[in-house]
Amino acid sequence: MTNSVTLDDLDRRILRELQRDASFSNAELADRVGSSGPSCWRRVRLLEEAGVLTRTVRLVDPARVGQGVNVICNIRLKSHSAEHTDSFERFIAREERIMECLSMSGEWDYQVRVVARDVADYEIFLMQTLLKQEAVGAAASHFALKVVKYQTAIPLTA
């Protein structure tokens, strides 16, 4: 676990606004959070230095770029050896269509979210890429029928 950072009310207002839309200028951000431009800029820089704010990205609508199928795939490794774990996690890091990967407790070792064009595209990925990984012992796939909620903003409580 990493150490958490103590945030004051202004920090939380800045983070809420940036999580909603990071495209506006520092002056616009300062106005939205009720701060001066220089103070807001300093706060943003301190939040970056503390590792609270990381990369700035633009979110792409997967369906509009032909990647409208979401698959949740549970994965069990053949063993929990360092070799298998490291090999699998290196594979995950370089595989673009795997959007998220969680190490899990319980019956399955990992859960990944994979995007694909369609079911056939996912089947090719599953059979020719994922299940060919030496460390993978088993996989179970679940197709999302629709996205009810997708959120990138982290809740910020006092």
Written description of the protein model:
By secondary structure, the protein is of the alpha+beta class. The protein is 37% helix and 19% strand. The chain has five helices and four strands, in the order αααβαββαβ. It has helices at 9-20, 26-33, 37-49, 82-94, 119-130; strands at 69-77, 98-103, 110-116, 136-143. Strand 2 and strand 3 form a beta hairpin. Helix 1 packs across helix 2 and helix 2 (26-33) packs across helix 3. The mean pLDDT is 96.
Give the second-level CATH assignment, the architecture of the largest domain: 2-Layer Sandwich
Specify the overall morphology: elongated
Tell me the helix content.
Answer: 25-40%
- Main sheet: strands, sense, barrel: 4 strands, antiparallel
Secondary-structure element series: HHHEHEEHE
Strand content: 15-25%
Task: Please give the radius of gyration in angstroms.
Answer: 20 Å
Low-confidence stretches: none
Record field, number of beta strands:
4
Per CATH, the class of the largest domain reads Alpha Beta
